[in-house]
């Protein structure tokens, strides 16, 4: 069988059978994905809900340093939240911060929890918030109590110290805060054991309460009887041994500090116990306490004002408080050495002394440096711990048989409460009290019992400055007591002439010895006479009145009237006989100035007169008046007056002296212009003894003033002050004269000279007064310079001295002589100079050309050409001429 057949047979055997397919139903794995996503979402949502935390709102005063999404909220150094939003409050006055707090920190969000912003800061007191330099500003908190809360108001500043369990909080009371600041350290035996927590006013602002926290490890060192004191700053004390400066730590200087000590046998202090904060270590020392009532004073300091007995310090003022409703009283406590408690008895006096510096204290420097202090005057008696302090000036009143007097004065004269009363330079009493009233001042004086016999009916009491300045005819004189009393002042007692009679209860207090001698108390003075003055004189109430430079009175009052000033004058009763109907008064000048060629002489009055002013009077020949003249000359020359008429008042001035033979005999009183005549009218006052001598016809009055030129200086003696020279005539009496203006004496020789006119194109090198030279000799001068009518030429008017007129001929030539001549040629340069005067002032030279026939003499006012340069052949002109 072939292969083909085999294949066909096999195909028939396996015929095709139709298949039946059946589909199986099942869930697709794709649907597992949504279910897994749902589970994961649920887990994440639950985790977000768990970690979302708690939202709170904190209100700050401003938003400085707060950044949303960045600023952290921290507690004890760990982040517990973050700021989500920073917005204004509704009124735009504050900032509201929305912050998210982590769930684990929700428990600190209580009602009394405090939040504040921490920022880095540095100062002398220290550095705070240093961790904020790295992480930026952050918000921190101090947990509080109360119910849960989610809205808070931030504190401006966080507390420096925090009171933890076991720490001891106590309160220190002080008069003032001193240099203590929050955060200052508290020391025990030089070791820091705590901090200053805060401070506040207590007792209506009369005290300061300083709260300190002592760490629990050191709280047992604080006892019920502990003493606290301020160790802030630098404590410097000055004494005989030098300057003692106590400085604690640098931190105590900058920030302040408090120290304390504790006795061993005392109970332990409890929280909120109160202690006194003493000013320094000395004030905190232990001792017995003496209660004192003190009259009000401003010089007491707790911890510094000392208590002394027999010049040795035994204690210190430890406390000082004011008394309500009694402003004149203070209450204090004295801390006294326990070994000296027996000094304080019912007979003891405590005296408040205020040592006033005096030169006598230079030998006792400890007392000089005390200031106000307490002195114990001990006496036997029953023990006592409460006293009323006596002022030093009231101590005498406590003594038996003390003589009490009253002194009255219109003013204090430098006397004050507490000063001494002296008799022959020995202290016999004291000024106890000073009272001011409408009429003046009253002083209450106490005289010690053993000196009361020195006071009599005619005794006089005088204010004693102990360094008196007295002014008399000899000028300024000093009167001083012994050196130890120079700065003390007080009252001096002068014994009366009779030295008898019982003491009076009231005496006047005199200003000085001179007032006492004439009986002037300044309380009942009435004017002896009243003077009038046209202008306000340089005097006032209190100025002295002099008679021939001797003080005889004083000025009581100066008051203005409609057209004058009235001056009330009081003449001491002892000298009123010097007044007559011929008395004239004038104001004394502060200084008399005499100017002459020998220099300036100034005669000054004593300093008291210069400061207060003075007037003088004298009895002269003519009838006196009640006019107060401005100076002595006007007073004595009243009615003795001359009148001068002049064209110009350039060198004329009020006060210019008139001199005869070098003596001042008067002065110019007024200088005025007469508008009708256009003349200057000057009035001169003449001393009476010279009036009849010079007021005559033929008298010549010449105004002498300096005449300075390159040629010469005239009238040198009038350089500092021009004056009027007097030449006496021989005619009848006359009071009106023409005042002659002075001129240089060199003008006299040209009075009868020959006038000539020189013509030139300009006058640049020409000066009026320059000399006219002939062969280098001055023979004339330039009188004046004018322009011609057309203005195209300059006319130089010169004048030739009479004795040299024949030298000017009609053919003479004139040229400008500048003082030097410079010629330059191939042979070299030639320089010729004249005199120094020619170099400074120049001039004009002339000469006549040589000729066989001499020309006639030039005529008056003849015109010549003024050449700029000297003619070339002028040196060979040797012609001359003889005078007729």
TrEMBL record:
Pfam families reported in the protein's UniProt record: MlaD
Residues making up the signal peptide according to the UniProt record: none
Keyword Metal-binding among record annotations: no
GO cellular component: plasma membrane
Main subcellular localisation: membrane
InterPro entries attached to this UniProt entry: Mce/MlaD, PqiA-PqiB_transport
Alphabetic keyword roster: Cell inner membrane, Cell membrane, Membrane, Transmembrane, Transmembrane helix
Positions of the Mce/MlaD domain: 53-144, 170-234, 527-591, 639-727, 753-814
Keyword 4Fe-4S part of the UniProt annotation: no
Membrane-spanning intervals of the chain: 30-49
Compartments, record wording: Cell inner membrane
Protein name as annotated: MlaD family protein
Gene source species: Pasteurella multocida
Organismal lineage: Bacteria, Pseudomonadati, Pseudomonadota, Gammaproteobacteria, Pasteurellales
């Amino acid at each position: 069988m072939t292969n083909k057949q085999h294949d066909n047979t096999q195909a028939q055997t396996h015929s095709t059978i139709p298949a039946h397919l059946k589909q199986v139903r099942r869930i697709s794995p794709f649907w597992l994905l949504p279910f897994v996503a749902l589970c994961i979402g649920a887990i994440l949502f639950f985790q977000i809900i768990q970690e979302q935390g708690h939202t709170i709102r904190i209100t700050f005063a401003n938003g400085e340093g707060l950044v949303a999404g960045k600023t952290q909220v921290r507690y004890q150094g760990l982040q517990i939240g973050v700021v989500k939003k920073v917005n204004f409050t509704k009124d735009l006055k504050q900032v509201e911060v929305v912050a998210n707090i982590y769930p684990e920190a929700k428990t600190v969000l209580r009602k009394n929890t405090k939040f504040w912003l921490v920022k880095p800061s540095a100062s002398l007191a220290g550095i705070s918030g240093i961790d904020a330099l790295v992480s930026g500003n952050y918000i921190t908190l101090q947990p509080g109590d109360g119910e849960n809360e989610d809205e808070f108001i931030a504190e401006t500043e966080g507390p420096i110290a925090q009171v933890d369990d076991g720490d001891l909080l106590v309160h220190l009371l002080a008069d003032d805060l001193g240099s203590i600041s929050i955060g200052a350290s508290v020391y025990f035996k030089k070791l820091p054991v705590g901090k200053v927590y805060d401070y506040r006013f207590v007792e209506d602002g009369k005290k300061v309460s300083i709260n300190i926290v002592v760490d629990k490890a050191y709280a047992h060192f604080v006892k019920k009887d502990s003493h606290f004191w301020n160790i802030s700053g630098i404590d410097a004390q000055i004494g005989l041994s030098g300057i003692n400066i106590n400085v604690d730590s640098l931190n105590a200087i900058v920030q302040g500090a408090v120290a304390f000590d504790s006795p061993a046998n005392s109970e332990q202090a409890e929280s909120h116990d109160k202690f006194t904060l003493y000013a320094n270590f000395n004030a905190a020392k232990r001792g017995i306490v003496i209660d004192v009532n003190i009259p009000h004073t401003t010089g007491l300091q707790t911890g510094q004002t000392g208590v002394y007995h027999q010049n040795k310090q035994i204690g210190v003022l430890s406390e000082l408080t004011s008394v309500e409703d009694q402003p004149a009283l203070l209450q204090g406590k004295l801390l006294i050495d326990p070994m000296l408690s027996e000094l304080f008895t019912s007979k003891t006096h405590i005296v408040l002394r205020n040592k006033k510096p005096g030169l006598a204290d230079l030998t006792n420097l400890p007392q000089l440096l005390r200031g106000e202090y307490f002195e114990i005057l001990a006496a036997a008696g029953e023990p006592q711990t409460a006293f009323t302090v006596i002022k030093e000036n009231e101590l005498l009143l406590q003594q038996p048989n003390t003589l009490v007097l009253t002194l009255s004065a219109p003013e204090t004269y430098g006397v004050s409460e507490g000063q001494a009363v002296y008799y022959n330079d020995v202290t016999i009493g004291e000024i106890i009290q000073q009272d001011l009233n409408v009429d003046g001042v009253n002083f209450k004086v106490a005289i010690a019992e053993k000196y009361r016999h020195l006071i009599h009916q005619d005794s006089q009491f005088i204010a004693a400055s102990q360094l008196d300045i007295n002014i008399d005819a000899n000028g300024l004189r000093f009167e001083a007591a012994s050196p130890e009393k120079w700065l003390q002042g007080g009252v001096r007692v002068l014994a009366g002439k009779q030295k008898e009679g019982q003491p009076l209860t009231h005496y006047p207090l005199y200003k000085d010895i001179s007032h006492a001698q004439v009986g002037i108390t300044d309380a009942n003075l009435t004017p002896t006479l009243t003077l009038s003055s046209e202008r306000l004189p340089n005097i006032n109430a209190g100025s002295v009145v002099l008679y021939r430079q001797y003080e005889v009175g004083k000025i009581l009052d100066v008051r203005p009237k409609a057209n004058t000033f009235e001056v009330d004058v009081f003449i001491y009763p002892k000298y009123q006989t010097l007044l007559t109907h011929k008395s004239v008064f004038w104001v004394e000048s502060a200084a008399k100035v005499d100017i002459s060629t020998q220099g300036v002489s100034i005669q000054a009055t004593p300093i008291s007169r210069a400061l207060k002013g003075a007037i003088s009077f004298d009895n002269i020949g003519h009838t006196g008046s009640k006019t107060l003249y401005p100076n002595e000359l006007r007073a004595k020359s009243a009615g003795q007056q001359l009148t001068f008429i002049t064209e110009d008042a350039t060198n004329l001035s009020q006060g210019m002296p008139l001199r005869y033979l070098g003596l001042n005999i008067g002065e110019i009183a007024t200088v005025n212009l007469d508008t009708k005549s256009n003349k200057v009218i000057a009035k001169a006052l003449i001393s009476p003894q010279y009036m009849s001598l010079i007021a005559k016809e033929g008298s010549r009055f010449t105004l002498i003033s300096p005449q300075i030129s390159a040629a010469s200086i005239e009238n040198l003696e009038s350089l500092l002050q021009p004056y009027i020279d007097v030449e006496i005539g021989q005619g009848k009496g006359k009071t009106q004269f023409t005042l002659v203006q002075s001129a240089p004496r060199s003008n006299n020789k040209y009075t009868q000279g020959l006038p000539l006119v020189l013509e030139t194109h300009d006058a640049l090198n020409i000066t009026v007064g320059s000399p006219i030279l002939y062969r280098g000799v001055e023979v004339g001068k330039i009188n004046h310079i004018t322009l011609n009518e057309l203005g195209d030429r300059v006319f130089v008017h010169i004048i030739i001295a009479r004795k040299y007129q024949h030298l000017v001929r009609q053919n003479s030539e004139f040229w400008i002589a500048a003082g030097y001549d410079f010629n330059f040629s191939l042979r070299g340069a030639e320089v010729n100079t004249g005199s120094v005067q020619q170099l400074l002032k120049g001039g004009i030279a002339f000469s006549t050309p040589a000729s066989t026939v001499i020309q006639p003499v030039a005529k008056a006012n003849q015109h010549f050409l003024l050449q700029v340069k000297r003619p070339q052949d002028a040196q060979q002109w040797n012609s001359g001429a003889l005078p007729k």
